[in-house]
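Suppose you are handed a protein chain with no further information: no name, no annotation, nothing but its sequence. What can you learn? This example shows the usual starting point.
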Amino acid sequence: MRGPRPATVAACGLAAALLAGGCEPMGRQSTDGGAVPPAPVISGGGGAPGSGGQAPAAGEGLLADADRLLLVQLRQAALWEIQVGRAAARRGSQEAVRKNLGQIATRHIRFDEVNRATAARLNVPLPDEPTAEQQSWMSEITGKSGTDYDKTAVARMRTAQGQLYARTAAVRASTRNTVMRRYAQRVQAFVNGQLKLLESTGFVTVDTLPDPPAVTGAPQPGRPGRPSPAPAATSVLRGGG
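A reasonable first move is to predict its three-dimensional structure. Written in structure tokens, the prediction is:
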């Protein structure tokens, strides 16, 4: 049997660039699509958080800084949103806020078990307190009452979950680690559920959403009142394939 083909250089995608930075060598692919790390040993310090490097993770593929950061961010999200969700279950002025934010806290408690188990397997230390910014959000929410309390709690959590969703997608698209890839898939489903709970409170409005991402090459809008549905893709393929 012939040996593995030489490792190629992976192209840097937009999502990976948002979190991990430049390109890294990519090993051959395992049968389930996960990358098998190439033979060269990473020099000392390359896997330190914030270095942009990667560290090996026992036969499961290279573990990038972005991978480890996602585990940390899910932990920090749980640490502040559990507290806010529990408080909102008591203090919310609207039934939907009390019910849905209470569910968000419960879901975080359950998913924290998944997060801690994955972090332990990949040897990623997790924090025991929210970030300073998250603590400021908690103070801001606590200082509100009535409808202002509901709107502020939902808006802060919706913004945070939206950012987490984008970061998770970047890791899902770029990670070389098979354990992390499966974890990111679970995070996507989890965060999507949190977003749905927040949006169904009725307090997610245009003024609470972030600006759309800047893009290039987007099509111009069609004429008002004159929709132009595209034909089936197969009908315009060359050769009728």
